[in-house]
Design goal:
- With 141 residues, the protein is mostly helical.
- It folds into two domains: 72 residues, no CATH class; 67 residues.
- 68% of the residues lie in helices and 3% in strands.
- It is built from seven helices and two strands.
- A two-stranded parallel ribbon has the order 1-2.
- It starts with 6 loop residues before the first helix and ends with a helix.
Length: 141
Amino acid sequence: MRKSKNKVKKIFFVFFGLISFSLGAIGIIIPGLPTTPFMILSSILFLNSSDKLYTWLTAHEKFGKYVLDFKKGKGITFKTKLYAQTMMLLTMSLSLIPISPAFIENVVVRIILAISAVFSFWLVGFKIPTNKSLKNESIKK
């Protein structure tokens, strides 16, 4: 493992790795909050700071497979991409459309959400590779 030797950096990476993991775990429950990108970020942060946390995450029964597949260059499944982008689009639309009950009135927050939505949609759709396993082939048929 290529851990950082700087103790402050290690603490920083562990702290933000745990926050990223928490957001990813919450993303399982809350539509629009992606899980896989947060787990991948957590793995990168843990890889640079804590062998114990990195091993725990990659061996995790729910998240480990996604992290390892991404690390191997397989990316995420088409179904996961479709779900993530649909939920992001739905959630952001409800937050940005004035007639929605979830409309956010603060203009700065709406701009940040819009930029975040576009970036996340682009990242999931075009930068993260699609895992072409046999399970995915049945989705396309």
